[in-house]
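[Q] Does anyone have a clean structure-token version of this?
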Amino acid sequence: MNDSRQATIYRFGIFEADATTGELRRKGVRIKLHAQPFQVLSLLLERPGEMLTREDICRELWPDGTFVDYEHGVNSAINRLREALGDKAANPRFIETLARRGYRFVAPVERIAPRVETGVPILPSANTSPIAGPALQSQATSASVFDHFLATTEDLPRTSHAVVQTLFVLLQLMYVGFYVGALSNLAEINDLFSPLPSATPLFYTMMLTAALLIPVRIFLLCAVLFYAPRVRQKFLRLWPLLLLCDIFWSLAPFLLLHHINYGFALACTTLLVYAPFAQRSLILMGAGENNPASSRPHL
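[A] Here you go.
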């Protein structure tokens, strides 16, 4: 194993492979993987997007002169590796099979500096050579505490770009409808708020957030419809604030209590609580990207 591989950590999606220790981690949690499948993974990560022949794998796993049923051995190593990554040969996110020729690593890969002994990660330096595509770089830029428990691009299904784009636009239009509807019926809403404790602060909070969020939603609509550059990064930076506002506005059905009953309003509210998470998923699935296929692995 060469020195460059020994001093390298590879990051792809939610996984990290440490060539120094031979460890594979998913979101920081170590995944059990035997030495031979890890060697295959290291070979693939060294040459992302390039074909690795079965003979290349055989030479790495078994030195010259070693007699082995390498066809079975290579198949076994690839299958164990796919199992560790949660990958499937029929629908690959990471390892693509090239029939009768070999394998290719199709996900974006980033080569980063190794960790020091204290376990503190070292950020990539200016002369670190990333091999990552736009999707992984944008994901690293927008990394936050939410990334530890929310879906990543690799966790989400592949879906038609038209469907993803349409759903995101409809969600923005829904919120604009909430804001405009609320501001058009302030007198009725004030009557609803009047029996509540702290009715006045709640009323003005509703009115202020509606007025401020209308231009935010129009910005998101325009950014997605006209494929603004770096729309994913911009949305993910804005998302924590939108999450708070959207949770507050999930109570919007209760503004219609003069027209609907409490049960129906509660049912609509529980559905709306998911809306900010749905928007985030749709952005990660390619909403607003002019060529979403370029940021996702090809089949």
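[Q] Thanks! Anything notable?
[A] Residues 161-295 form one domain.
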